[in-house]
Amino acid sequence: MSVSPGLIEIAPKSGHALLLRSGQLLRVVDLEGSQVADLVAYSADDPTEQFSQNFTRMNNDKVGVAVGDRLYSNLNRPMLRVEDDTVGVHDMLFAPCNAFFYEHVFGIEGKTGCREHLAAALEEFGIGHERVTDPF
Questions:
Q1: Rounded Cα distance, 82 and 25, in Å
Q2: Cβ(96)–Cβ(115) under 8 Å?
Q3: What is the sign of the dihedral through the CA atoms of 81, 115, 96 and 37?
Q4: In the predicted model, is pLDDT for residue 67 greater than 60?
Q5: Alpha-carbon dihedral sign for residues 126, 59, 29, 26
Q6: For residues 72 and 112, what is the distance between their CA atoms, to the nearest angstrom?
Q7: What 3-state DSSP class applies to 61?
Q8: d(Cα 16, Cα 8) in Å, to the nearest integer?
Q9: For every residue of 39-54, which 3-state class applies, written as one string?
Q10: Does residue 81 contact residue 69 with C-beta atoms inside 8 Å?
Q11: What is the DSSP annotation of 108-135?
Q12: What is the distance between the alpha carbons of residues 42 and 34, in angstroms, rounded to a whole number?
């Protein structure tokens, strides 16, 4: 398991997983513009506790999130807090794009999506494809 080192550049159409300790800051920057960054979170102490779009919407009492809002787990516990936001609009209603969706909705075979990229990155933490939660 890797502990958050500093600056990590993630190539398009890929994923990266890291361990954040309480109080650490995670900054996501879109270097090229118009890129999508799906973020999922799991508790290091209990990986069955994971980020939840549903509980985040419910506990913040709105569909979107803004600076100061928290991202909640499926156990109704805060996991992360939005400190700054230069994007402003975040998908809080949909699952991550995935190969099944591309094939069965758009007829594109062999195209991977965020779900596959996140699953590959989460392998080292023992989190399989079936456990990739809906992202922030």
A1: 10
A2: yes
A3: positive
A4: yes
A5: negative
A6: 27
A7: coil
A8: 9
A9: CCCECCCCCCCEECHH
A10: yes
A11: -TT---HHHHHHHHHGGGT--GGG-PPP
A12: 26
Structure tokens at 14: 């890929």
Q: How far apart are CA 54 and CA 130, in angstroms?
A: 18
- Both tokens of residue 114? 């965020």
**pLDDT tens readout for residues 15-61:** 999 999 888 999 888 887 777 789 999 999 999 999 999 999 999 99
Pseudo-torsion of CA 93, 48, 42, 10, nearest 10°?
A: -80
Q: Token pair of 33, please?
A: 């513009």
Look up tokens 């709105």; give the residue: 62
Residue 97: how many other CB atoms lie within 10 Å: 19
